[in-house]
Predict the structure of Pirin domain protein.
Amino acid sequence: MKAAIRQIFELGFPWQTQDPFLFCVYHLDHYPKGNGQLGPDAALLKGRNLGNDFTKKEGWRMYHGSAIPGFPCHPHRGFETITAVNKGYCDHSDSLGAAGRFGEGDVQWMTAGRGVQHSEMFPLIHEHKDNTLELFQIWLNLPKQAKFVEPHFKMLWHEDIPLVTKGQARVKIIAGNYGGYQGVAPAPNSWAAQPKNNVAIWNIKIAPYGKFLLPKTDMEVDRTLYFYEGSHIEIADEPIVPNHGIDLNAAMDTEIRAGETEAHILLLQGRPIKEPVAKYGPFVMNTELEIQQAMDEYKLTQFGGWPWPYPDNVHQKEKGRFAKYPDGTVVVK
């Protein structure tokens, strides 16, 4: 039988992924107190390339924001974004008219399909304490047959996401099944919507000196662990330090042992789509011709236009967690 570990690799920005995943990025920004306008209470013109600030100066970044950190309106086609916010908040607005503020454990699942614009801004709500942001954004590919489906917006509220304690570990099941607990249903046209594709997205935390048994699967899947916080872990007698990914043999049970501090791990798993991938920025298709067609169509239609007053749209400071769906339905948490 093949060894449990196929490869160990250093985590960059973004993180290396395997089919059916296209992209994964981990944001940890220790934002200061808010300035009352949902931006940082700090001088922004000192040493920051506003609009393209990816340098982690003073522990945080503005990304493509100029007054509020985040990512103003931009298009997507041909895949899905899964945004899991562990700490802090994200304000979503899109060309479907959907909107929301989510965070503190919530997850947003958006199928771009044939085309959508959205913005993802990080409002600094607290004015009397720091505004730490921790989130994952994961891109999950769509197969050829689903690349032109209608866009779809869904919120997975943290109250509904299974959090399973097993021995010395806690597993947050964003997608997939663990120990008989099933994650909230993903978007309907997702590769994750079919059980045969065995897609799993789990956030695993193992207590100091604890252990966790990752069960094998008899399905064909790619399985990757991302060890992003802790002192060290050990798999198959191999010590691994933080900021490393592990490509695992999913046909074997794998025991993970934590070191002297709690280990934080993200698992991405799924049956590979095994189709050609052509990528250009926010577009993911099967051929270069389809990429060119996507660019031409976006220039012509703007994927429905932008119905919000600002490209970096944020919601009122007083708003709590909520979702407004394209049909006008509003859910308040």
Remarks:
- Helices lie at 288-301.
